[in-house]
Amino acid sequence: MSVTKGLEGVVAATTTISSIIDDKLTYVGYDIDDLAENSSFEEIVFLLWHRRLPKKDELENLKKELAENAEIPDEVIQHFKTYPIDKVHPMAALRTAVSYLGLFDDEADLLDSDANYRKAIRLQAKMPTLVTAFSRIRKGLEPVAPRKDLSFAANFLYMLNGEDPDEIAVDAFNKALVLHADHEFNASTFTARVCVATLSDVYSGITSAIGALKGPLHGGANEQVMKMLTEIGSIENVESYIQRKLENKEKIMGFGHRVYRKGDPRAKHLKKMSEKLTTLTGERKWYDMSVKIEEIVTRQKNIPPNVDFYSASVYHSLGIDHDLFTPIFAVSRVSGWLAHILEQYDNNRLIRPRAEYIGPKKQEYVKLEDR
Ligand SMILES: CC(=O)SCCNC(=O)CCNC(=O)[C@H](O)C(C)(C)COP(=O)(O)OP(=O)(O)OC[C@H]1O[C@@H](n2cnc3c(N)ncnc32)[C@H](O)[C@@H]1OP(=O)(O)O
Ligand SMILES: O=C([O-])CC(=O)C(=O)O
């Protein structure tokens, strides 16, 4: 047996959902650059789940289904109110809430493909409501009910703040959702697939995926990037802060990737958005500091930024609390997780690799009283 640490380069299955080839990302063969410039997030959801772009009426129908399923049970709202609100990270709250939500879905344990598709709609529709309801409850505010006349992106911002978002914010948020929707066999998607490959249910798959996304080496990095930017504080401090980190062999959050070598194709879109939004808010320093960090890390380590780096200053500029950055990633990525879960069920085999045992062998058992 040969072991590849972290399964680097190991191809674990086939997929028709997304690909990363020669540092290019596609969803069902469509280049991420085209999708980022042109698509609504709802179109991406359709594309990932049906492997083709929707016609107008199909898109309208999906939007309607998402809008009609966006409300969450009152029990879930009341449940949030029992959480130790000032200690709980929103990703932990989301992980718990998705699991809890499953208890109220009569079809939770039905595994036929129609029931699974209906659950996919319900979960995708409810994720923004869960995140925004928790965010409001912990601030002592009542949750804002979803509206049926707003796009997916606009509805999120509306439910978060309780007021109509402006067009620039909606466009930026929509683009961020498009860019985060799927990414081949990343850690959280793989986790979801491993879970449902036991023929466990969709809610278990998504709950496991949220747990995996939460870690700072994966989706949790976007919050850590903003923490770093806040700690640095101003452009004059960038050089010494980053040098110190590199000398101490600490990782710079938002840099590096297991698959991309020349760079993450999503980062340039977020960088452009960061420049635009930070200029508009009069807080361009976050963008300028980020650019300087990028210069130093690429010059010294030749490690380019990933999707999490510039998304931090984008979300900050949209007025979003820093610990909601990763839940927002989940609001988008649940579309990819669901696509992969449905693909896994369609052609399932238990996922069960081997481990090479390197511990002691042929040990002789010694009775408790003789040890
Ligand atoms: C949505 C996402 O999940 S994107 C990734 C989000 N995560 C982050 O931004 C956290 C920071 N980045 C990292 O920790 C890593 O680059 C990962 C986890 C993304 C990829 O990890 P791996 O493929 O296992 O690479 P690994 O950690 O082995 O790094 C390889 C080398 O590059 C260095 N390196 C990798 N990333 C960084 C970084 N961000 N800062 C400094 N050095 C780094 C490592 O120290 C290592 O150097 P060495 O060979 O001298 O020991
Ligand atoms: O693919 C990965 O390893 C991580 C990543 O960029 C993502 O999930 O978007």
Automatic annotation (TrEMBL):
Pathway listed: Carbohydrate metabolism; tricarboxylic acid cycle; isocitrate from oxaloacetate: step 1/2
Matches recorded under PROSITE patterns: CITRATE_SYNTHASE
InterPro entries: 2-MeCitrate/Citrate_synth_II (IPR011278), Citrate_synth-like_lrg_a-sub (IPR016142), Citrate_synth-like_sm_a-sub (IPR016143), Citrate_synthase (IPR002020), Citrate_synthase_AS (IPR019810), Citrate_synthase_bac-typ (IPR024176), Citrate_synthase_sf (IPR036969)
Domain of life: Bacteria
Catalytic activity: oxaloacetate + acetyl-CoA + H2O = citrate + CoA + H(+)
Pfam family, one: Citrate_synt
GO aspect biological process, one term: tricarboxylic acid cycle
NCBIfam families linked: cit_synth_II, PRK14034.1, PRK14035.1
Entry's family note: Belongs to the citrate synthase family.
Protein name (record): Citrate synthase
Species of origin: Fervidibacillus halotolerans
